[in-house]
Design goal:
The chain is of the alpha/beta class and about 180 residues long. It is elongated.
């Protein structure tokens, strides 16, 4: 995931720089092509996206992804693609299968609030330009820096949830079981 994110961010910056140089040197406005090229790229991604999750996982495509769930059923692997995501996951009562369950969120703006599961491990990996985190009451801001979190017993747990976030701007809040969101 780290290499893919680095390649994506590097490609975006190179493209923006190339368009700016062409505009400045030749007075050709390539910025008017960005929206059509972006739509084409998203279409190709949807059609030919790499198989990143296991069989039986869900792929959910929404412009606005608004999820407010108290999980009491089994967690399934999933990949969400959206422009804006507002997610509240209370995993404290979830049934988590043995092994590692991966859930991916790819969006431009991402706000996620998670309540830690009981008797299971949680790992979060967030990549983006700006990431604001609140981990069990402690706040941290990251710019161009990844955010990584793993519950202290993640490696020894037999049941694990791995949440991957890729977005331009992320706000992440992680609370312990039984704690409320701010």
């Amino acid at each position: 995931m780290k290499n893919r994110t680095t390649i994506l961010l590097g490609s975006i910056l190179i493209t923006i720089g190339f368009f700016s140089i062409v505009d400045a040197l030749f007075n050709i406005n390539l910025w008017s092509l960005i929206l059509p090229l972006l739509l084409i790229a998203i279409g190709f991604f949807i059609l030919f996206r790499p198989k990143s999750l296991s069989d039986g996982s869900d792929f959910i495509l929404r412009f606005i992804n608004d999820i407010d769930e108290f999980h009491t059923n089994a967690i399934k692997p999933a990949e969400y693609l959206s422009f804006v995501s507002d997610i509240k996951f209370d995993l404290s009562g979830a049934t988590i299968p043995d092994g590692e369950t991966t859930i991916r969120f790819n969006s431009f703006v991402n706000e996620i609030k998670i309540t830690l599961p009981q008797n299971a491990g949680l790992k979060i990996s967030a990549r983006g330009i700006v990431t604001n985190t609140k981990l069990l009451g402690k706040e941290e801001d990251n710019i161009f820096a990844p955010f990584e979190y793993a519950s202290p017993d993640y490696e020894i747990q037999t049941r694990k949830v791995f949440i991957q976030l890729l977005s331009f701007v992320s706000e992440i809040e992680i609370n312990g079981p039984g704690l409320e969101y701010d």
